[in-house]
Amino acid sequence: MNNLIIFSTFSLLVSLSHAIEFDFCVGDLSLPRGPQGYACKDPASITTDDFVYTGFRGERTTTNIFKNNVTLAFADAFPALNGLGISMARLDFGVGGVIPIHSHRTSEVIILTKGSIIAGFIDTTNTAYYRRLKVGDVMIFPQSMLHFQVNVGKTPATAFVSLNGANPAIQLTTTAIFASNLPADIVDQITLLSNEEVMRLKRIFGTA
Ligand SMILES: *[C@@H]1O[C@H](CO)[C@@H](O)[C@H](O)[C@H]1NC(C)=O
To answer: Which DSSP category does 40 fall into?
Structure first.
């Protein structure tokens, strides 16, 4: 009997500790972000505008070295996502444009809305899964896997992605290695690339 009471009390505490305390918690970007996200904006000041993100409108230019343009609707740009474990991004590719190999803290689902791309990921056994997508096709990149997209069409391409985190982050392998402050001799050693090639890439990213 005692065990039952203890068990029931424990279960009640566990369920209470998982209780949802509010309908939403639009992030207050004026306060620091903690491990669970931002503090909540005063509900009295929230309007429909908080729940609508208009940053995906319009055309994009693709003039960077990767011939891409990435528009993030993560919690920083769209604070209504705070605490909801979901976010989006728009990916634009010029002809020959790529999203270079990268990873997030989350999974990602992509839908191609314009053009033709090859999308893929590489798992921890070094198996690559990649496919040429047609408009309307959807592909999933499982949590934390390195993945990429390449415009293989003769026209610009556009895709939208959703990620199961409000602040999923992006870590691009190429820029992590060559645009960071890591010294060239260490980069040579940890990549097996020649020093000439490492210096060429560090110059491209302004770190040589
Ligand atoms: C993305 O496109 C917008 C609109 O053309 C432009 O203002 C912005 O500079 C572009 N960003 C990059 C990184 O090319």
So the answer is: B
Rounded distance from Cα 92 to ligand 1 centre (Å): 10
**Residue 2: predicted pLDDT:** 59
Whole-number Å distance, alpha carbon 205 to ligand 1 midpoint, is 18
148 CA to centre of ligand 1 in angstroms: 20
CB 90 within 8 A of CB 111: no
CA–CA separation, 63 vs 54, rounded Å?
Answer: 22
Q: By three-state DSSP, how is residue 45 classified? A: helix
In the chain, the domains with their CATH numbers are 1-167 (2.60.120.10), 170-208 (no CATH)
- Any atom of ligand 1 within 6 Å of the Cβ of 60: yes
Q: Does the beta carbon of 67 lie inside 6 Å of ligand 1?
A: no
Q: What is the pTM of this model?
A: 0.89
* 122-142: pLDDT as tens digits: 999 999 999 999 999 999 999
